[in-house]
Amino acid sequence: MEKSERKHSLIGKLLILSATLVWGSSFVVLKDTLSKLGNGHFTFFILSLRFLIAGAIFVGFCAKRFSKLNKRTLFDGMALGGILFLAYALQTVALNYTTPSKNAFLTEVYCIFVPFLSWLFFKKKPTAKNFVAAFVCLAGVIIIAFFGKTEKASNEALGDGLTIFCGLFYALQMIFISFFNERDDSLLLLFVEISTVAVLCLATSAIWEFPRYAGELVMSGEAVWKIIYLGVFATGYAQFAQIYGQKFTSATTASIIMCFEGVFGVMFEFIFGQNNLNTFIIIGFSLIFLTLIINETDIGAICGKIEERKKRAAGNASDIADPVMPQKKIQEGKADDEKI
What we know:
This protein is mostly helical. 81% of the residues lie in helices and 0% in strands. It has helices at 3-36, 43-62, 71-94, 100-106, 110-122, 128-147, 156-181, 186-213, 221-245, 251-258, 260-271, 279-296, 299-321, 324-339.
């Protein structure tokens, strides 16, 4: 890999990591906003506001690019938006049956789906290292979700199943972002995706939430600021960082980095006194961190350097064992020079 490629790869990974950090922080903000705004009955309305704010921001960035918007980019963006909406919808429905912590961590099974889906759709066969990293990451997620938490819910089996299915749609979003990034303008693609999610969430809220709970909706100043934070940072910036970061890194690597969303989420819960760390959570975090080391370590290059050093050591040892041989080589060289 050339120096410029390594630089772009690092920038891409840092962008995705920063998005993951923001999403982790947003878990505490969103949880509080959902509970206080309409007694938790306006999830899709809050999501629509998040994406509408983000969409409004990108109107300014895309103003000079709209002339380049073609049918292919429009279709690709709408497809991404539909996939992302389904992921959010399944995750939201699952919250009715399982605990928020398990919902957050089980969503991250996308790390195991991404390598296989990339192989299935685009014939991009993952390396053995990618598979190992994905399974280690999954082990960390399962330990935290099933053993690191003490909350209970009414029908966790159904909720967990829906959450895993939600993870499948997040995986599809990641691999199609990587594919569409190669042929579309990234900002226009993102604008169409965000707009699609906003429209679908608003329609769902209008059909499902407002007819049932309109009387319970009370918008406070605190809720407004939290929704602005979610819209600007957790949606606008984070979605941009993901889609732009994936221009320079693979979907498999992105999925592993994004598994830190749950880690950051628990970290912020701990900071704000909403969660206590225990042995299982620490073990799970350690495994998830290990996946980054596995995925970023060039095992082939390391093995090559080790083999090269062994050969050098063997050559030096032979010279020491037969000190006459180097002298013979020098004399032979001198004789060849005299002949010339």
